[in-house]
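Translate structure to sequence.
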């Protein structure tokens, strides 16, 4: 799914109006009607509604919603915020319609003292400002935002299109924003919905189709994308009848140190479970028995060194289709030296995670030796150590894209909506996964998945998109079976087979 900017969404509206054809008022009626249907599906008439409307098109949406709810017998109070801006033409059209039939349900608010007392079970609908907002909300309007947010523990708040105060494409940090339980948005996700800094304001996001022009959507390019199952099905490569283990590649996993062999085992199990033909694990000698017992499908190469870390002095050769390195590795000086030698000799795309990333952050010149097309998988702190701090999530996304282009690498920044920066400047957000995956070892599983997919001749882009998707999907299945609290990283691996079956069979 493409993620369009606020300007592109306005262009999509205008293109639809011009080419369907449909009037702007009818398109507004169509969109707001979808919202009214959603509200009536989720809340019976026993819930009184308080709909707060600005004077732009978002307020027009609120007026249409009010009319439809009133027509169906709901108790609705329309709170019109009277401020200096001129009302939009579509707002004026629907205001006049509402006033003709339900003038008694309209009240004007010109300052914070006009905020109504809300009865129990009231539902607040925020239709004050939508995607057109381009500056922070100030003055008494900010006071109204705070008043609405004060109702959050007692009353459900539903935002239309965007929580008022939230900017679609830029950071809204430290500005007044409605804290919604639900956001009803149209046709596309907005970038703002996918950023961690906005987690407390958008609530559950529901995307409602409103029939915007498919031609515009198809032919308009964008940097940002949200992955979906249809995309994954174009990436997935089914197995052929005459294939053999050599067909699916020989992967090398360099991982583990004393006390951290669990990370190596999780990565190895995940690598095999996603279909790598062969797997060799370069591990410290202290982990030999652990790996051989835990994952008999993996072959082992060991280092016999006193500090019990993997120094992988054996040079990686051409038999390995790819290498995954980092889980539980440690950051000893000898390990860093070994990584430097590896990067000097191995030129195929590889997966770099965990302690290997930490070594790169200490020796940043090594970043330029990482083979083009490789996949880096930092969590936010590792990303900051590698590339420096950012003032907000939007700036961090810009930095992610810039570094992926500069280094010609795929950089997977872990999070609720994992962001994947690509060498061509595009950024993909992964749609699968849940908070139950915020547990030790989950990232090690992802490293194994990505390594296993690269070994099977998936392109780096296909591997990172499919790997993130199937990792999150398996996590969703684990949470559904066990709960988010009780699941572990091992449960993600246990559900990989079911994830492949549900998605691709």
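Result:
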């Amino acid at each position: 799914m493409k993620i369009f900017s606020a300007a592109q969404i306005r262009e999509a509206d205008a293109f639809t109006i011009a080419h369907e054809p449909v009037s702007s008022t009818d398109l507004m009626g169509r969109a707001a009607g979808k919202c009214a249907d959603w509200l009536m599906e989720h809340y019976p008439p026993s819930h009184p509604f308080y709909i707060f409307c600005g004077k732009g098109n978002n307020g027009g949406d609120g007026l249409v919603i009010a009319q439809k709810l009133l027509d169906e017998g709901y108790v609705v109070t329309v709170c019109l915020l009277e401020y200096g801006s001129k009302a939009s033409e579509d707002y004026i059209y629907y205001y006049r319609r509402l006033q003709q039939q339900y003038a008694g349900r309209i009240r004007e608010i010109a300052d914070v003292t006009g905020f109504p007392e809300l009865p129990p079970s009231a539902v607040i609908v925020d239709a004050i400002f939508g995607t057109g907002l381009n500056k922070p909300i100030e003055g008494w309007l900010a006071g109204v935002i705070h008043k609405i947010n004060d109702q959050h523990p007692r009353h459900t708040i539903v935002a239309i299109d965007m929580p008022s105060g939230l900017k679609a494409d830029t950071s809204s940090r430290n500005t007044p924003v409605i804290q919604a339980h639900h956001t009803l948005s149209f046709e596309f996700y907005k970038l703002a919905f996918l950023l961690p800094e906005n987690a407390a304001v958008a609530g559950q996001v529901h995307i409602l189709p409103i029939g915007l022009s498919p031609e515009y959507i198809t032919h308009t390019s964008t940097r940002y994308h949200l992955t979906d199952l249809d995309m994954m099905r174009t990436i997935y490569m089914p197995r052929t009848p005459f294939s053999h283990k050599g067909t699916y590649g020989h992967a090398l996993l360099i991982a583990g140190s004393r006390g951290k062999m669990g990370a190596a085992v999780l990565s190895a199990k995940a690598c095999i479970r996603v279909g790598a033909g062969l797997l060799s694990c370069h591990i410290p000698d202290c982990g030999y028995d652990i790996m051989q017992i835990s994952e008999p499908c993996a072959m082992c190469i060991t280092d016999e060194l006193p500090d019990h870390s993997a120094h992988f002095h054996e040079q990686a050769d051409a038999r390995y289709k790819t290498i995954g390195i980092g889980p539980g590795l440690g950051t000893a000086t000898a390990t860093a030296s070994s990584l430097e030698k590896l990067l000097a000799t191995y030129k195929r795309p590889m997966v770099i995670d965990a302690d290997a990333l930490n070594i790169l952050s200490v020796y940043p010149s090594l970043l330029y030796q990482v083979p083009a097309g490789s996949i880096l998988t930092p969590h936010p702190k590792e990303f900051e150590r590698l590339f420096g701090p950012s003032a907000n999530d939007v700036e961090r996304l810009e930095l992610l894209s810039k570094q992926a282009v500069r280094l010609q690498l795929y950089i997977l920044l872990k999070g609720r909506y994992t962001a994947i920066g690509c060498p061509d400047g595009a950024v993909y957000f992964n749609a699968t996964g849940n908070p139950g995956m915020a547990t030790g070892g989950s990232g090690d599983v992802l490293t194994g998945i990505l390594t296993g997919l690269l070994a099977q001749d998936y392109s780096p882009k296909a591997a990172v998109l499919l790997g993130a998707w199937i990792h999150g999907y398996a996590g969703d299945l684990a949470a559904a079976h066990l709960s988010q609290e009780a699941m572990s990283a091992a449960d993600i691996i246990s559900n990989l087979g079911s994830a492949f079956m549900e998605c691709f069979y």
